[in-house]
Design a protein that fits this description.
The chain is an alpha/beta fold. 37% of the residues lie in helices and 17% in strands. Strand 8, helix 8 and strand 9 form a beta-alpha-beta unit. The longest helix is centred in the C-terminal third of the chain and has 20 residues.
């Protein structure tokens, strides 16, 4: 023990001086309890029971763990931003409180796999944006999609889906689910007669389609699909990643569920992986029960990044929509472009459907270059502004050749079978100045 000397330096105090000081202040005497080690002096442990009035009866290691937290933590509700809650588990003050939680009378969480306050705040924001009854975040868009399919389609069940969709989703439906006896009907997005036939011939559990789809941006008639599926008890789930609720809310038109890869427009900065499902509470609850078993939990840091990204979603989507529409028109008029796929253009096969369901047509444009695989690759390599990268929906513009990025292992015949052309380009507009996007696109086309 030390005390401040007359000259300001700290000097060692005696036991008698310390005891005298404690007595003069009417503070209970410090009890020193020494536990004698049986081996060496180095192993001797000293436990100090300190005085009351803010002091602790615990040793240094115990205090290092619990002080400042156990008896009361700083109030965080006044924080302007939602705190990132990094915990793997949650505690209860007593058994009565735990039982109240188990019976739904006390709102909390039990374990990190079952919920997190940061994640819950993000889920609530998305739920309200989509107008759903419940929402569930997970570790990625594919985690959301696969968990949803496994939770809602029983063994031996049947799924109806569309031809134009994300490759990994198709791969899961066509190669993994058959192991569980789950079959599927794959239709063109506009084949509503085929949907009606499938519903009559099979006991369908789920209709699942992107809208707009990837990469050709096809759009489905949600109300027509719902009118066919609902009488049979078939759930309708729409992947709205390319649209976002700022452009289209499928739940408003009768869909039961909407899923998103929140890594895209929701996060908006190409720095997070996340997925979310929104919709009917009974259906989301089934997915959540299975999600709790599988454990595809989003990290609270990732949930916070999505939460932060959502704050500027509407502003970014406005710029994405505007730039994509302009670049689509520019490309459609360019002599070196064979075809443009963008639902905002009258030339798109689903333009009328898109106008019915969408307020804006999204930030992604797909188009076909007049040339072969290598001429198309030369165009992409000549672009200076966008990054050559998969994904979409971020503030940076991204460009990709689906043949190379996603289907290079398939071979020309297989790619042709699933409709992926070698000269197809997918461009995700960022929020850069439009003039710069167009100028860069023009100079790249001049190079081929």
């Amino acid at each position: 023990k030390t005390r401040a000397g007359r000259d300001g330096f700290r000097t060692r105090t005696t036991r008698r001086e310390r005891m005298s000081a404690l007595s003069s202040k009417s503070i209970p005497r410090v009890a020193l309890v020494k536990t004698r080690a049986t081996a060496t002096k180095a192993r001797r442990v000293t436990t100090v029971t300190r005085a009351e009035g803010g002091a602790s009866p615990w040793g240094d290691s115990t205090q290092s763990i619990h002080n400042g937290e156990r008896s009361g933590r700083p109030r965080v509700s006044d924080s302007l931003t939602t705190p990132i809650v990094c915990t793997s588990t949650y505690h209860f003050k007593d058994t009565e409180e735990l039982i109240a939680y188990q019976e739904g009378r006390y709102g909390s969480f039990e374990y990190g796999r079952y919920g997190n306050p940061t994640t819950q705040a993000c889920e609530e924001k998305i739920r309200q944006l989509e107008g759903g009854e419940a929402a569930l975040l997970s570790a990625s868009g594919m985690c959301t999609a696969t968990t949803m399919l496994l939770a809602l389609v029983p063994a031996g069940g049947h799924i109806v889906t569309t031809t134009d969709c994300y490759r990994r989703t198709r791969q899961f439906i066509q190669t993994f689910l058959p192991k569980m006896g789950i079959s599927c009907t794959v239709l063109d997005p506009s084949d509503y007669d085929g949907l009606e036939k499938a519903l009559k011939e099979h006991e369908c559990s789920l209709y699942f389609s992107e809208s707009p789809t990837n990469p050709y941006l096809r759009c489905v008639d949600i109300e027509r699909i719902v009118s066919l599926c609902k009488p049979t008890g078939c759930l309708v789930c729409i992947d709205g990643t390319f649209a976002t609720p700022c452009n289209s809310r499928a739940l408003d038109f009768g869909a039961d569920l909407v899923i998103h890869s929140a890594s895209k427009f929701f996060g908006g900065h190409n720095d997070v992986l996340a997925g979310v499902i929104v919709g009917r509470k009974d259906a989301v609850d089934k997915v959540k029960q299975f999600h709790n078993i599988l454990g595809g939990v989003i990290d609270p840091h990732a949930a916070y990044l999505v939460l932060r990204g959502l704050k500027t979603l509407a502003l970014r989507i406005e710029r994405h929509n505007d730039s994509a529409m302009k670049i689509a028109k520019f490309l459609e008029a360019h002599p070196k472009i064979e075809r443009v796929h963008y639902p905002g253009l009258p030339s798109h096969p689903d333009h009328e459907i898109a106008k019915k369901y969408m307020k804006g047509f999204g930030g992604v444009v797909s188009f076909e270059v007049k040339g072969d695989l290598w001429q198309t690759a030369k165009f992409i390599d000549s672009c200076k502004l966008p990054y050559i990268a998969p994904s979409l929906g971020g503030v940076e513009s991204l460009i990709e050749q689906p043949t190379v990025v996603s289907y290079w292992d398939q071979g020309p015949e297989k790619r042709a079978e699933i409709g992926i052309k070698d000269n197809l380009v997918r461009y995700s507009t960022g929020i850069e100045d439009y003039a710069d996007i167009e100028a860069d696109m023009a100079q790249a086309l001049d190079c081929i």
